[in-house]
Amino acid sequence: MRFSVYQDSQVGGRPSNQDRMGYCFTRDALLLLLADGMGGHQHGEIAASLSLQTMGTLFRERARPLADDPAVLLDELVFGAHQALLAYRAAHRLPDTPRTTIVACLVQQGRAWWVHCGDSRLYWLRHGRILARTVDHSHVERLVALGRVSPLERANHPDRNRLYNCVGAPTLPQVDRAAPVQLQAGDQLLLCSDGLWSMVREHELALRLSASPLEQAIPALVRQAAVAGGKNGDNVTALAMTWLDDRPGFAGNALLTDGLARDSIVTSIHPQRP
């Protein structure tokens, strides 16, 4: 299994960075994670951090070195994060549970599965074209589906940040699952917070990722979104993977910058041997 990964984050116009990103891999499986702590609730950064830590730990326990059922495992990871947040609230006697969006993708045997809760997105790209993306769990996305709002109004609509689904709410999260897809060499998976996709049009995301290596494209996109957001802009975070091939027994090749945001969380799991 060969792949390259690159990630970057900027605080934007916010006082702190509540986005978190990370990845874990075994010899034969890769997990990509991104969470955007919800600033309208207490401790959004804790919600995002604790969720990624919990999901990474569960992945490490159960992918040995493959997940028996990737779709089921992804569900278990999200619900495990949800329970961890409820337990954190109880342990610290908080008036409300910290909340976060989550998008997660598991890759093994040349296929990718992904799930999400909220408006953090995943894009699947090939040769500069977006083949699929997640659909936001937001009020404005419902309006688009009903034909009441133009798709071009998504990014700047006043109700863009009104979400109806997240991890850490009083009710169980609604886990939106995508059907597994077969990856080809050169395919890319981009996970990003709304601070990125709301500031950079999709055709430009696809163009930049196809025109430059990840270590150039991702920082450039993050920087562009942060500048566009200005002093009132959101945190901007992106994690991208380029799939190379799936030769059996070939350990994951993770490319990681030293210039990661201090607030990011990276979990690397050494390839496990039989």
3D architecture notes:
- Mean pLDDT is 88; it is low at 250-274.
- A hairpin with a 2-residue loop joins strand 4 and strand 5.
- This protein has helices spanning 44-62, 70-92, 139-145, 194-197, 202-211, 214-229; strands at 2-10, 19-25, 29-37, 100-108, 111-117, 121-126, 129-133, 176-177, 181-182, 188-192, 236-245.
- It contains 6 helices and 11 strands.
- The chain has a single domain (2-245), classed as Phosphatase 2c, domain 1 (4-Layer Sandwich).
- Strands 2, 3, 4, 5, 8 and 9 form a 6-stranded antiparallel sheet that branches. Strands 1-11-10-6-7 form a 5-stranded antiparallel sheet.
- The longest helix is centred in the first third of the chain and has 23 residues, at 70-92.
- Helix 1 (44-62) packs across helix 2 and helix 5 packs antiparallel against helix 6.
- By secondary structure, it is an alpha+beta fold.
- It is globular, with a radius of gyration of 17 Å.
Task: Summarize, please.
This protein has 274 residues and is α+β, with helices and mostly antiparallel strands.
Q: Please give the domain count.
A: 1
CATH architectural type? 4-Layer Sandwich
Quaternary state of the chains: single chain
How many whole angstroms does the radius of gyration measure?
17 Å
What is the CATH level 1 assignment? Alpha Beta
How far the N terminus sits from the C terminus, by CA atoms, comes to 15 Å
Tell how many strands the DSSP assignment holds: 11
